[in-house]
Amino acid sequence: MSCAEPEYYTKIYEETKKRWAHERRECKALELGFRILYSPPCDSPKLLLIGLQPGRDEKRKDRDKAQQQMDGWPAENEFATEDWCLAKRTRELVDVGALRASMAMDAIFFRSPNDDQWEKIPRETRKGLKEFCLERTKSIIDRAKPSLIMAIGLGTFSMLTKEQGKLELPNNRQNRRLVVSGSVQGFPLIGIRHPTGKQALSSEDWNSMTNNLPKILKRFYNK
Question: Which end of the chain is more exposed for a tag (fewer CB within 10 A), N or C?
Fold first, then answer.
Protein backbone atom coordinates (compact mmCIF):
# COMPACT_ATOMS: atom_id res chain seq x y z
CA MET A 1 0.00 0.00 0.00
CA SER A 2 1.25 3.47 -0.79
CA CYS A 3 0.15 7.03 -0.19
CA ALA A 4 1.37 9.80 -2.46
CA GLU A 5 0.52 12.61 -0.04
CA PRO A 6 0.80 11.53 3.63
CA GLU A 7 1.11 15.19 4.59
CA TYR A 8 -2.60 15.60 3.74
CA TYR A 9 -3.45 13.19 6.55
CA THR A 10 -0.87 14.72 8.87
CA LYS A 11 -2.65 18.04 8.46
CA ILE A 12 -5.95 16.47 9.52
CA TYR A 13 -4.29 15.13 12.66
CA GLU A 14 -2.89 18.58 13.41
CA GLU A 15 -6.29 20.24 12.89
CA THR A 16 -8.00 17.66 15.10
CA LYS A 17 -5.44 18.01 17.87
CA LYS A 18 -5.90 21.77 17.82
CA ARG A 19 -9.70 21.46 17.98
CA TRP A 20 -9.48 18.87 20.77
CA ALA A 21 -7.08 21.00 22.83
CA HIS A 22 -9.43 23.96 22.53
CA GLU A 23 -12.66 22.11 23.38
CA ARG A 24 -11.33 19.94 26.22
CA ARG A 25 -10.59 23.02 28.33
CA GLU A 26 -14.35 23.53 28.68
CA CYS A 27 -15.54 19.93 28.40
CA LYS A 28 -14.23 17.11 30.60
CA ALA A 29 -16.09 14.53 28.51
CA LEU A 30 -13.44 15.05 25.82
CA GLU A 31 -10.40 14.30 27.95
CA LEU A 32 -10.08 10.76 26.53
CA GLY A 33 -8.60 12.21 23.34
CA PHE A 34 -9.23 11.16 19.76
CA ARG A 35 -8.38 8.64 17.11
CA ILE A 36 -8.73 8.91 13.33
CA LEU A 37 -7.00 6.11 11.38
CA TYR A 38 -6.64 2.45 12.32
CA SER A 39 -4.35 1.80 9.37
CA PRO A 40 -1.79 3.59 7.26
CA PRO A 41 -3.40 5.89 4.67
CA CYS A 42 -3.25 4.62 1.12
CA ASP A 43 -4.34 5.59 -2.36
CA SER A 44 -7.23 3.71 -4.01
CA PRO A 45 -7.71 0.95 -1.41
CA LYS A 46 -10.06 -1.82 -2.44
CA LEU A 47 -11.92 -1.40 0.86
CA LEU A 48 -12.30 1.47 3.34
CA LEU A 49 -13.76 0.53 6.72
CA ILE A 50 -15.50 3.32 8.62
CA GLY A 51 -16.65 2.88 12.21
CA LEU A 52 -18.74 5.38 14.13
CA GLN A 53 -16.56 6.64 16.98
CA PRO A 54 -13.65 5.40 19.10
CA GLY A 55 -14.54 4.35 22.63
CA ARG A 56 -12.37 4.19 25.71
CA ASP A 57 -8.95 2.73 24.97
CA GLU A 58 -8.93 -0.63 26.77
CA LYS A 59 -5.20 -0.18 27.28
CA ARG A 60 -5.52 3.36 28.51
CA LYS A 61 -2.75 2.82 31.06
CA ASP A 62 -0.34 2.80 28.12
CA ARG A 63 -0.16 6.58 27.82
CA ASP A 64 2.54 6.42 25.17
CA LYS A 65 0.26 4.38 22.92
CA ALA A 66 -2.65 6.72 23.52
CA GLN A 67 -0.47 9.67 22.55
CA GLN A 68 0.78 7.87 19.46
CA GLN A 69 -2.83 7.37 18.33
CA MET A 70 -3.34 11.13 18.48
CA ASP A 71 -0.05 11.83 16.73
CA GLY A 72 -0.59 9.58 13.73
CA TRP A 73 -1.54 6.20 12.31
CA PRO A 74 -0.30 2.64 13.04
CA ALA A 75 2.10 0.71 10.85
CA GLU A 76 -0.55 -1.90 9.94
CA ASN A 77 -4.31 -2.10 9.72
CA GLU A 78 -5.25 -3.01 13.28
CA PHE A 79 -8.46 -4.71 12.15
CA ALA A 80 -6.14 -7.38 10.74
CA THR A 81 -3.75 -7.62 13.68
CA GLU A 82 -5.26 -6.61 17.03
CA ASP A 83 -7.18 -8.69 19.57
CA TRP A 84 -9.96 -6.24 20.53
CA CYS A 85 -13.42 -7.65 20.03
CA LEU A 86 -14.50 -5.66 16.96
CA ALA A 87 -11.25 -6.47 15.15
CA LYS A 88 -11.63 -10.19 15.81
CA ARG A 89 -15.28 -10.18 14.73
CA THR A 90 -14.44 -8.24 11.55
CA ARG A 91 -11.88 -10.90 10.64
CA GLU A 92 -14.75 -13.41 10.64
CA LEU A 93 -16.47 -11.30 7.98
CA VAL A 94 -13.58 -10.06 5.84
CA ASP A 95 -10.50 -12.00 4.75
CA VAL A 96 -7.39 -11.03 6.73
CA GLY A 97 -5.42 -10.45 3.54
CA ALA A 98 -8.09 -8.05 2.31
CA LEU A 99 -8.04 -6.26 5.68
CA ARG A 100 -4.26 -5.85 5.55
CA ALA A 101 -4.64 -4.15 2.16
CA SER A 102 -7.57 -1.98 3.26
CA MET A 103 -7.83 1.36 5.04
CA ALA A 104 -9.77 1.95 8.28
CA MET A 105 -10.99 4.97 10.22
CA ASP A 106 -13.82 6.35 12.34
CA ALA A 107 -16.39 8.92 11.19
CA ILE A 108 -16.33 10.78 14.53
CA PHE A 109 -12.78 11.14 15.81
CA PHE A 110 -13.29 12.16 19.45
CA ARG A 111 -13.34 9.32 21.97
CA SER A 112 -16.39 8.58 24.09
CA PRO A 113 -16.88 5.42 26.18
CA ASN A 114 -20.62 5.38 25.49
CA ASP A 115 -23.56 7.40 24.14
CA ASP A 116 -24.46 8.75 27.58
CA GLN A 117 -21.03 10.36 27.98
CA TRP A 118 -21.17 11.82 24.47
CA GLU A 119 -24.60 13.29 25.21
CA LYS A 120 -23.15 15.12 28.22
CA ILE A 121 -21.27 17.39 25.84
CA PRO A 122 -23.31 20.58 25.25
CA ARG A 123 -25.49 20.26 22.16
CA GLU A 124 -23.85 23.06 20.14
CA THR A 125 -20.35 21.80 20.97
CA ARG A 126 -21.34 18.27 20.03
CA LYS A 127 -22.89 19.44 16.77
CA GLY A 128 -19.76 21.41 15.91
CA LEU A 129 -17.48 18.44 16.63
CA LYS A 130 -19.63 16.15 14.50
CA GLU A 131 -19.59 18.59 11.58
CA PHE A 132 -15.82 19.05 11.97
CA CYS A 133 -15.26 15.28 11.76
CA LEU A 134 -17.72 14.48 8.99
CA GLU A 135 -16.32 17.21 6.77
CA ARG A 136 -12.89 15.62 7.09
CA THR A 137 -14.18 12.06 6.82
CA LYS A 138 -15.81 12.86 3.49
CA SER A 139 -12.67 14.69 2.39
CA ILE A 140 -10.63 11.56 3.20
CA ILE A 141 -13.04 9.47 1.13
CA ASP A 142 -12.52 11.83 -1.82
CA ARG A 143 -8.75 11.71 -1.35
CA ALA A 144 -8.41 7.94 -0.84
CA LYS A 145 -10.84 6.98 -3.66
CA PRO A 146 -11.71 3.49 -2.33
CA SER A 147 -13.35 0.89 -4.55
CA LEU A 148 -15.85 0.19 -1.77
CA ILE A 149 -16.66 1.64 1.65
CA MET A 150 -18.01 -0.54 4.45
CA ALA A 151 -19.76 1.28 7.28
CA ILE A 152 -19.55 -0.65 10.53
CA GLY A 153 -22.99 -0.20 12.05
CA LEU A 154 -26.17 0.93 10.34
CA GLY A 155 -25.99 4.16 12.35
CA THR A 156 -22.64 4.88 10.70
CA PHE A 157 -24.21 4.19 7.30
CA SER A 158 -26.99 6.70 8.05
CA MET A 159 -24.47 9.28 9.19
CA LEU A 160 -22.51 9.01 5.93
CA THR A 161 -25.40 9.11 3.48
CA LYS A 162 -28.95 10.45 3.30
CA GLU A 163 -30.01 7.36 1.37
CA GLN A 164 -32.31 4.82 3.02
CA GLY A 165 -30.15 2.06 1.64
CA LYS A 166 -31.00 -0.88 -0.59
CA LEU A 167 -31.57 -4.07 1.36
CA GLU A 168 -28.80 -6.56 0.60
CA LEU A 169 -29.28 -9.05 3.43
CA PRO A 170 -32.45 -9.23 5.54
CA ASN A 171 -33.43 -11.16 8.60
CA ASN A 172 -36.92 -12.16 7.53
CA ARG A 173 -37.86 -13.61 10.89
CA GLN A 174 -37.36 -10.33 12.76
CA ASN A 175 -37.72 -7.95 9.81
CA ARG A 176 -34.28 -6.46 10.56
CA ARG A 177 -31.71 -5.23 8.06
CA LEU A 178 -28.35 -6.97 8.30
CA VAL A 179 -26.63 -5.44 5.25
CA VAL A 180 -27.67 -2.45 3.13
CA SER A 181 -26.05 -0.59 0.24
CA GLY A 182 -25.95 2.95 -1.09
CA SER A 183 -23.34 5.56 -1.94
CA VAL A 184 -21.43 8.45 -0.42
CA GLN A 185 -19.50 11.11 -2.34
CA GLY A 186 -20.15 9.01 -5.45
CA PHE A 187 -18.44 5.93 -4.00
CA PRO A 188 -20.27 2.63 -3.38
CA LEU A 189 -21.15 2.11 0.28
CA ILE A 190 -22.42 -0.86 2.21
CA GLY A 191 -23.54 -0.80 5.83
CA ILE A 192 -23.54 -3.82 8.13
CA ARG A 193 -25.26 -4.33 11.44
CA HIS A 194 -22.62 -3.70 14.09
CA PRO A 195 -20.87 -6.97 15.00
CA THR A 196 -20.47 -5.91 18.66
CA GLY A 197 -23.28 -3.37 19.04
CA LYS A 198 -25.79 -2.87 21.86
CA GLN A 199 -28.38 -4.99 20.08
CA ALA A 200 -26.59 -8.31 20.05
CA LEU A 201 -26.78 -10.34 16.88
CA SER A 202 -28.37 -13.75 17.22
CA SER A 203 -26.27 -16.73 16.18
CA GLU A 204 -28.60 -17.08 13.19
CA ASP A 205 -27.97 -13.46 12.13
CA TRP A 206 -24.23 -13.80 12.63
CA ASN A 207 -24.05 -17.01 10.60
CA SER A 208 -26.03 -15.32 7.86
CA MET A 209 -23.57 -12.40 7.81
CA THR A 210 -20.44 -14.58 7.85
CA ASN A 211 -21.85 -16.73 5.04
CA ASN A 212 -23.21 -13.96 2.83
CA LEU A 213 -21.13 -10.82 3.35
CA PRO A 214 -18.07 -12.16 1.46
CA LYS A 215 -20.35 -12.83 -1.53
CA ILE A 216 -21.83 -9.32 -1.29
CA LEU A 217 -18.35 -7.77 -1.11
CA LYS A 218 -17.19 -9.79 -4.12
CA ARG A 219 -20.21 -8.64 -6.11
CA PHE A 220 -19.43 -4.99 -5.40
CA TYR A 221 -15.73 -5.43 -6.17
CA ASN A 222 -16.63 -6.89 -9.58
CA LYS A 223 -19.00 -4.04 -10.56
Answer: C
- Please check whether residue 121 is in contact with residue 15, taking contact to mean a CB–CB distance below 8 angstroms: no
Confidence of residue 61 (pLDDT cuts 50, 70, 90): low
CB 191 within 8 A of CB 154: yes
| pTM given for the model | 0.95
Rounded-to-10 torsion of CA 155, 181, 146, 162: -50
Task: Check if the beta carbon of residue 215 is closer than 8 Å to that of residue 190.
Answer: no
- Extract long-range pairs of 142-146: CB within 8 Å, 24+ residues apart: 142/185, 143/5, 143/8, 144/41, 144/42, 144/43, 144/44, 144/45, 144/48, 144/103, 145/43, 145/44, 145/187, 146/44, 146/45, 146/46, 146/47, 146/48, 146/103, 146/187
Query: Which residues, at least 6 apart from 136, have a Cβ–Cβ distance to it below 8 Å?
Result: 12, 15, 16, 109
Show the domains of the chain with their CATH numbers: 6-221 (3.40.470.10)
Task: Label the pairing between strands 103-106 and 47-51.
Answer: parallel
pLDDT (tens digit, 9 = 90+) per residue, 97-142? 999 999 999 999 999 888 888 888 999 999 999 999 999 999 999 9
Alpha-carbon span 167 to 99, nearest angstrom? 24
